[in-house]
Amino acid sequence: MNEKELFERLIQRDDSAFRILVEGWKDRIYNTALGLVQDEEDAADIAQEVFVSAWLGLNSYRGDAGITTWLYRITVNKCMDLLRKRKRKLLWSKLFHSGREEDPEENNALEFHHPGVLLEKKQEAAILLTAIRQLPGNQRIAFSLQKIEGLSQQEISAIMEISEGAVESLLQRAKTNLKKYLNSYLKQNNQL
After folding, report:
1. How many C-beta neighbours within 10 Å does residue 19 have?
2. What is the DSSP string of 165-183?
3. What global pTM score does this model have?
4. What is the residue-averaged pLDDT of the chain?
């Protein structure tokens, strides 16, 4: 069944079409969320929320993008909501507690296990994931979608609803920022 037929069945609230949607896209949605939020439980929760939102929002789907793009867009928005919530929580924690509260994202870096990372590369992956966490929101999204999910700039453009030139610019800035962070890390740890 092609996407158009699937969408038509979804609009009719066909439960079997929804099962097809979930089965066909659940791994991609989970992996995208995992790459962005870097927490397995949060990624699983977001994946569930994405499908619930998709089901509830079928009537608002404009059909200008494919189902995959639409689902990625919902996923990215859910991830960004969670990351903003984490940031606010950390800020409030710092404001109302004496001393420095530790960033929970920083503490989870070495404990986080992405399924695509080999055991012997765990430390290098943790350093890279920590660096990715330092990127501003849109850079983090564009970089993760391209490097972790393997999406093209055109696909990222559709998901983020920005021009391909803007995607290219985000990717360049992300790479520059990652180089700065990684060089600083290596200097601090006498590895350069």
Report:
1. 10
2. HHHHHHHHHHHHHHHHHHH
3. 0.76
4. 83
